């Protein structure tokens, strides 16, 4: 198998032992039709020399990678789902397949979605719809372009089965997805260990997270390490949710089993991008109470962190965990300032003045209902884009009297790398967006005629957005 010198297998998770996961067997599919392959990330993890047959063998048939995990592992976890505790979950249609180091030495996971039944499938078929795979590729690529820390879609294969689903016209086409991420250790893994009262396993998990993901806390004393880990997770989660808010993104299912210790966005189900700043905008049709609506995502993240902290009381005093949790609001506000300023192409200045501007900006976006994608396209680099913004199709919003303080705020701030405005993307009138109507329009020709041209064109647009924004991404 032609791995190159950059390939560095490091299957650490399996060293935790059988208390954390179950070995599983991948499903066998009738066909393997490649619909998306991430050549960029393949090069970064030493798999850039794979030919199509090797991609299929490793990412559709799931034969082991060299010197890596011999058998896939379905990870055990519990979770709060819409704040109701559920001990009857775990990896039900996916598994951890390999771990390896990237070109920066970071430990990464290759894991699946739609790869067959596991002990946690319950009554499910363990499969993924092709539409679900397409939606996950689109969401992750769009968020990545905007600087959100997200899992990477690595390979998507159509698999030739007819699936029955209650929320899609059935039968519908099947797929299997491989995604690359920094970790798949969910808050729910800790919740399960607290539920079964296994302090030894909890300590082993904390030590593993320190070694694999937070080496700066590996030297902390054993007694203080759980709180140090929670403190790090609070910081990463604050950054994640702030970046969602700056992108106008609604995850849709912020259950504790859908949040990871490394603060990565992943597992895209009923996600949506908000068309405007609509506080009650929801992504999931079944979220009838708006628990995970746009404006409540920071609250949901804080609640989930509290459940993680509660689980860690199995091996830690409560006081230092509570101290870590109390830091979330302050860290979130700071992270939101950073995320919005990066998305607007502005240099951060005095924290308190910047936070006041952020509050004024968000209030104006809500009051005006200005289109979210258009606003951030029109005003990238702030005042440096004023002429362009005033010629935008959305320019009527910027003529409102209440926009004057926002314009003044832009004028008072320095653009960061304003040369980015010369990119052809900023010569377009329309922003690159991914609203629900656009997603449905991309899927329609695939479903009707197997026409993937609109999907490919949207991925090209998203790549152009990534290039134009040139936002440094944490992964």
Shape: globular
| Pattern of helices and strands | EEEHHEEEEEEHEEHHHEEHHHHHHHHH
Q: In DSSP terms, counting alpha (H) and pi (I) runs of 4 or more, how many helices?
A: 15
Strand content: 5-15%
Whole-angstrom Rg: 22 Å
Proportion of residues in helical segments: 25-40%
Mean pLDDT across the residues is: 96
Catalogue the unreliable spans.
Answer: none
Q: Which structural category fits the helices and strands?
A: alpha+beta
Report the strand count.
13
The rounded distance between the terminal residues' Cα atoms is 26 Å
Largest sheet: 7 strands, antiparallel
Features of this protein?
single chain; 475 residues; alpha+beta; 7-stranded antiparallel beta sheet; two-stranded antiparallel sheet; 15 helices; 13% strand; globular
What features would you describe in this structure?
This protein is of the alpha+beta class and 475 residues long. Strands 1, 3, 7, 8, 9, 10 and 11 form a seven-stranded antiparallel beta sheet that branches. A two-stranded antiparallel sheet has the order 2-4. A two-stranded antiparallel ribbon has the order 5-6. The chain is globular, with a radius of gyration of 22 Å. The chain has helices at 39-44, 52-59, 130-145, 187-195, 199-212, 225-247, 297-312, 318-326, 328-344, 351-368, 372-378, 386-389, 404-411, 436-449, 453-469, and strands at residues 8-9, 21-23, 33-37, 73-75, 79-81, 84-86, 96-101, 107-113, 128-129, 152-163, 172-181, 249-250, 272-273.
Helices and strands, with pairings:
Layout: E1 8-9, E2 21-23, E3 33-37, H1 39-44, H2 52-59, E4 73-75, E5 79-81, E6 84-86, E7 96-101, E8 107-113, E9 128-129, H3 130-145, E10 152-163, E11 172-181, H4 187-195, H5 199-212, H6 225-247, E12 249-250, E13 272-273, H7 297-312, H8 318-326, H9 328-344, H10 351-368, H11 372-378, H12 386-389, H13 404-411, H14 436-449, H15 453-469
Antiparallel strand pairs: 1-7, 2-4, 3-10, 5-6, 7-8, 8-11, 9-11, 10-11, 12-13
């Amino acid at each position: 198998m032609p791995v190159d010198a950059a390939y560095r297998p490091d299957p650490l998770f399996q060293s935790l032992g059988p208390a954390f996961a179950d070995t599983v067997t991948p499903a066998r599919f009738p066909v393997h039709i490649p619909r998306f392959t991430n050549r960029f990330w393949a090069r970064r993890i030493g798999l850039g020399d794979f030919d199509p047959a090797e991609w299929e063998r490793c990412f559709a048939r799931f034969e082991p990678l060299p010197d890596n995990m011999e058998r896939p592992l379905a990870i055990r976890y519990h979770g709060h789902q819409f704040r109701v505790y559920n001990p009857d979950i775990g990896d039900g249609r996916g598994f951890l397949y390999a771990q390896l180091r990237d070109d920066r030495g970071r430990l990464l996971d290759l894991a699946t979605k739609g790869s067959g039944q596991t002990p946690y499938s319950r009554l499910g078929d363990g499969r993924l719809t092709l539409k679900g795979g397409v939606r996950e590729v689109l969401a992750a690529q769009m968020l990545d372009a905007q600087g959100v820390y997200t899992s990477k879609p690595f390979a998507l294969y159509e698999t030739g089965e007819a699936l029955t689903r209650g929320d899609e016209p059935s039968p519908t086409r099947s797929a299997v997805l491989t995604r690359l991420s920094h970790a798949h250790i969910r808050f729910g893994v800790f919740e399960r260990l607290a539920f079964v009262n296994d302090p030894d396993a909890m300590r082993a998990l904390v030590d593993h997270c320190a070694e694999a993901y937070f080496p700066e806390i590996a030297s902390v004393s054993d007694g203080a390490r759980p709180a140090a880990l929670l403190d790090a997770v609070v910081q990463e989660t604050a950054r994640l949710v702030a970046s969602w808010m700056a992108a106008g993104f609604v995850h849709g299912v912020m259950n504790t089993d859908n949040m990871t210790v490394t603060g990565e966005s992943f597992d895209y189900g009923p996600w949506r991008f908000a068309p405007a700043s609509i506080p009650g905008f929801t992504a999931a049709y079944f979220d009838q109470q708006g628990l995970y609506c746009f404006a409540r995502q920071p609250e949901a993240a804080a609640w989930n962190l509290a459940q993680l902290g509660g689980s860690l009381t199995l091996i830690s005093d409560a006081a230092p965990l509570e101290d870590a949790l109390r830091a979330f609001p302050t860290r979130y506000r700071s992270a939101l300032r950073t995320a919005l300023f990066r998305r607007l192409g502005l240099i951060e200045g005095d924290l308190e003045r910047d936070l006041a501007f952020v509050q004024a900006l968000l209030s104006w976006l809500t009051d005006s209902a200005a289109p979210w994608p258009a606003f951030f396209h029109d005003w990238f680099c702030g005042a440096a884009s004023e002429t362009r913004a005033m010629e935008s199709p959305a320019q009527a919003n910027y003529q409102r009297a209440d926009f004057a303080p926002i314009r003044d705020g832009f004028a008072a701030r320095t653009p960061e790398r304003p040369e980015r405005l010369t990119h052809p993307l900023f010569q377009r009138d329309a922003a690159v967006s991914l609203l629900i109507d656009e997603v449905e329009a991309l899927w329609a020709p695939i479903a009707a005629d197997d026409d993937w041209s609109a999907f490919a064109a949207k991925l090209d647009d998203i790549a152009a957005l990534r290039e134009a924004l040139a936002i440094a991404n944490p992964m």
